[in-house]
Structure prediction request, 976 residues.
Amino acid sequence: MEHIVIIGNGISGVTAARHIRKLSDKKITIISAETEYFFSRTALMYVYMGHMKFEHTQPYENWFWKKNRIELKKGFVKEVKDASKELVFASGETMNYDKLIIATGSKPNKFGWPGQDLEGVMGMYHKQDLENLEKYAPNNKACNRAVIVGGGLIGIELAEMLRSRDIPVTFLVREKSFWNGVLPAGESEMINRHIKEHHIDLRLGVNLQEIKSDESGKVKSIIIKETGEEIPCTVVGLTAGVSPNVDFLKDSNIELGRGVKVNRRLETNIPDIYAIGDCAEQHEAIGQRRPIEAVWYTGRMMGETLAQTLCGNPKDYNPGHWFNSAKFLDIEYQTYGWVWAQPKENEARFYWEHSDGKICIHINYDKNTNEFIGINTFGIRMRHHSFDAWLNEKRSVEYVLEHLADANFDPEFYKLHEKDIVAKFNQENNTNIQLKKRSWKRIFQFS
Amino acid sequence: MKTIQNLGLSIFLLGLAIFTILPFIGSYEISSEKLEEIVNNKGIKSELFIEDLKTTTVGKEFSDPFSFSSNITSAIANANVTHKEKSEWDKVIWDKPHSFSYQIAKDVGGGPVKENKGLFWFLTFGLGIIGALLYIIPGVVTLGPAGIKNNGIWFNAATNRGWIGWFAFVFLVGFYVLLYFFPDYIVNWTYVVDPFSESLSGNMASQWFLYGFLYCTVMTVMAIRMYIKYRHNKYQILRTTSVLFFQIVFAFLIPEILVRFEKPWYDFKNAFPLDYDFFFKWNLDDLIANGGFGLFILVWGIVLTVVIVPIMVYFFGKRWYCSWVCGCGGLAETLGDPYRQLSDKSLKSWQVERWLIHGVLVFAIAMTGITLYAYFTGADAVSGIKTQTIQDIYGFLIGSIFAGVIGTGFYPIFGNRVWCRFGCPLAAYLGIIQRFKSKFRITTNGGQCISCGNCSTYCEQGIDVRAYAQKGQNIVRSSCVGCGICSAVCPRGVLKLENGSDDGSTRYETPEVILGNDIDLFEMLEENK
Prediction:
């Protein structure tokens, strides 16, 4: 029986394993050094905040793996010997494979800051980071201030986590406005305001100079590069992005870039070795996507695709239209299609913001053809399959606005803003778009 | 703000402490004239019972209800043993001993509570309400900007099955045991709500009036907590208002006012088979004896169950009843909201759930069938089973123990929908319709799910919502009561309660396009079911 070995028990590896099991009878082993069972990394924050217990982050009950004959092996792979199709563990053990899937995910970036390995400095990625945080920041007596370095999604989540225990937080963001490499100015400014509303000491346009240590090797303070200001703190969170966790492959024959280089079939340069998820790097970017995408759903899709390939139904990885979502403290964010921070040459923009300053949408469309390109929504939930269909059908911005009510995904009885949105668009563009009433018939056309 | 909350908590606990002490105080004395009056009113023919009470109880003052009641109940028991031995069936006292004892105690009880009903209402209910509100209302500020704030729920001993939870469990179970089985011990509690009862129905408060009053009070206070906690969520606000309205107006005020006009006590929204004694002989007789109005209730009750309930479930799902109208649901969604995360999500519990709840439905229908057969044929037993016996078993096991003691008492341990999930025969009936023929579903928003598990954790019905959402599959489950919390706690906007079209392809199935990949996920799901 063919033995498929998967390194990494995150969403990519586990999805691959589940789908291979659905499609075949192959022997499957998942290796992880982090935890015994699969858990949802994105939910770690809720464990610290007391919304959930760690076991709630595990999507499958513990009996699931045995029942589905997916073997779990706890261990750290330090070497891949592709000639003998053999893995060597840090413990010295070895394991043979017929096909190997590398799904080792990411690790937090560190940029060689002085003091970055002191006690009390941590990322927020692994289960071990959560344990560390619980140790160094259990409450605001043990931790009288935390400094977070890096203004991305994990940074703002870490800030929210610490604030849930009333720990004062200083948030150092390199950019002039939060996440403005991704978000256009309106949205970014909205989130700046919301961060401050949560009593987070937001410092924009600053970099970390160094982390200072006390006598016992613990964090004492940090220094800001631009101002030289010293901020006393006991915990430093480094959340300046992630990069593929592939160091253990450096001495192997597998071709690496920043991640493991793969083609559209998710194959590496070595036969029978594949890579999926955050650690995989496409030779050529797909559409406007980045070659490496550390996104939950792309990991899942790669897992599903590779399972098909390995079970005799070769498939290219085809992630479809870009979409994503996040939550910034209390403000939910969804995006479908592309809305770049800066409009490209052929692009026109439409921005609408509610007077309460917590709800907005931003539509990107082609100014020559009026083709809809993408939408950012904050504080309004939108229906994925509506936008997916409109992008497939290359609908115009007028069509999208006319049918915007179909796409609304807010809970029932919520105040609807489509009328205001369409009115503003009409006013700005001298158009006469009439909003259509929501139609279940249109909504369910997709099937 | 913290100070105000701590003060509120102290006041609440003081009110609760006084409430708890009340059953232990008071004076109970029965005079020989009183005894004679009771004997005459009740038509008691047992001289043994009268003699027993005369020697042990009459003319003596008791300073707590326990020994007083024990004399009465043992007098009944002793007399009945002898009468039954001698086959003196007309002398046997058929009343439930503690209900009988309750009537006497309520009548002859005295002491500070009875003399100062208003004062003691304030010291119990009043302090409880004020304290709770002082604790709850500062949440507007302390919770921070509007949004989901479940911070610390799993660190709090009250909400993580810690010692406070166990204490609340013991307290609630104790309360229900007293309420259902020992009403004679809690006459003092009923005194404090007498003034309300008199102004509504004209009668002194029974333990059931006390329960109704307490129920409405608790729901109102905890509804305010819901309004604050979910102030950003209009679905939750409207739903909370709806259950509160139906509880106070339909389950409490209207029935009491009906009694004032000498009509039968009836809760117009309480549908059979949740209202399990609707077809019992005494109820049918009572309704028929009430002429046109009684007949109207009879017809309404049948139409409600047979026509209105299924049609509404078809259009809106069972939520229209379970989390918008029902009293049990109303308490679960207000008092029970802090405990929703405690419901068991394992596959095992789902298996238990399906056997139990459908078992109760079968039990309720069988019992009603036998009851109606007996009613129309005049037999008092069907194939050797006495209708009275089966009704008593159902009333005790399901009506009292399951719905009350376990249903609410176990909130702090098994979550707030224990009864609704495992026991309610009406929920089982609605669920079957919802599962197979309804427009209602929880729509999963394409590929946005990140498997975080908030939805599953906070599902009070123990549905593993995430298991569906992460597959891109809509949630169509018989047990879903449509409380909408999964949708509220989802950080990625993945879940929406909808009444769409009722055909299978859009209701259960997964649209392949959302996957992004050109794999037909739906086909794969079908293949591997």
Observations:
- The longest strand of chain B covers residues 440-444.
